[in-house]
Inverse folding.
């Protein structure tokens, strides 16, 4: 994956898309999201209560060297950005599997956005009303550093007849 050249597509100005509208190499950029410390700690307290997500002092003694957001928080922010301003799929973003990696920590104060690129489109042989789209989505901070890489398989429907 990632061998095709992606071309930018301003999804914020575009109507909803169906499988028939998509092409390999199309690229989408989301709006931005600012992660604040209170939100970081609130998410961690509820879903990933580890010291390096909750306590500044304890976090300094870990491999993170300071307070870091849960990877699952970064994933949730990515999902929000994809849904609200990423690839505008007509029937929503319906996951069918994928891979996720967090190459560097997300920190309070980071300004995140998502850049996605269609890697492959596979029409279904058994269900002609849909197909699977392989989408690579990179979540980047304000310095352009990748904080999350998501390779997702999405179920995408054809335009209704």
């Amino acid at each position: 994956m990632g061998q095709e050249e992606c071309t930018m597509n301003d999804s914020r100005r575009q109507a909803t898309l169906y499988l028939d509208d998509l092409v390999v190499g199309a690229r989408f950029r989301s709006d931005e999201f600012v992660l604040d410390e209170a939100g970081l700690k609130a998410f961690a307290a509820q879903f990933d209560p580890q010291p390096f997500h909750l306590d500044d002092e304890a976090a300094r003694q870990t491999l993170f060297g300071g307070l870091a957001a849960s990877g699952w928080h970064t994933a949730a922010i990515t999902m929000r950005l994809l849904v609200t301003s990423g690839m505008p799929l007509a029937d929503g973003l319906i996951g069918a599997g994928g891979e996720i990696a967090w190459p560097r920590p997300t920190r309070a104060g980071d300004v995140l956005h998502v850049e996605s690129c269609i890697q492959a489109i596979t029409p279904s042989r058994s269900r002609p009303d849909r197909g699977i789209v392989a989408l690579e989505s990179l979540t980047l901070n304000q310095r352009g550093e990748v904080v999350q890489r998501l390779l997702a398989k999405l179920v995408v429907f054809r335009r209704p007849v």
The chain has a mean pLDDT of 93. The radius of gyration is 17 Å.
